[in-house]
Write a structure and sequence with these properties.
two-stranded antiparallel ribbon; Sufe protein. Chain: A; mainly alpha; 9% strand; globular
């Protein structure tokens, strides 16, 4: 069973408001990005996720390990005023810690529904979170493509 399957199972073991409490627990456990990434907020708009109404910054960086050492690490910064967005992104960060680009590409786009959160989140939140999942996949794929091309460029 994958980390994501374990998390989904945990969420599904609760009903309605209790699922929200689990989500808030995840929100409180969202790791802080390293200071060098945080320092780019407001200076470099590339990490800003414009698809979401909530101010969110997302970074996909090379990680260590994974298949052939080609893993990625996700860092996210979301303001305290958006605990549901923080919570869902924290679930993703925890579920895909040290994942490869292929593993992230297989992330279910219906993650919100699988977690059982659709009934307790507003539609605009769900739409924004779906957009962020697509962006995570897109940026991870771009990172993997660049990592694959880099060794050939040095030949």
């Amino acid at each position: 069973m994958s980390k994501l399957d374990d998390i989904i199972s945990t969420f599904r073991s609760f009903e309605g408001e209790m699922r929200l409490q689990v989500l808030l627990d995840y929100a409180n456990g969202l790791p802080k990005p390293p200071p060098e990434l945080m320092a780019t907020i407001g200076k470099d708009d590339a990490a800003r996720v414009h698809e979401c109404m909530t101010p969110v910054w997302l970074w996909v960086v090379p990680g260590e390990g994974g298949e052939g050492g080609k893993s990625v690490k996700l860092f996210v910064h979301v303001g305290e005023e958006a605990p549901t967005v923080r919570g869902v992104l924290s679930v993703i960060v925890h579920a895909y810690e040290g994942a490869t680009a292929d593993e992230i590409a297989a992330m279910p786009e219906d993650l919100i529904e699988r977690l059982g959160l659709s009934p307790v989140l507003r539609m605009n939140r769900v739409i924004g979170l779906h957009a962020m999942i697509k962006r995570i996949k897109r940026e991870t794929a771009a990172h993997a493509a660049n990592a694959t091309e880099a060794p050939e460029a040095g030949r």
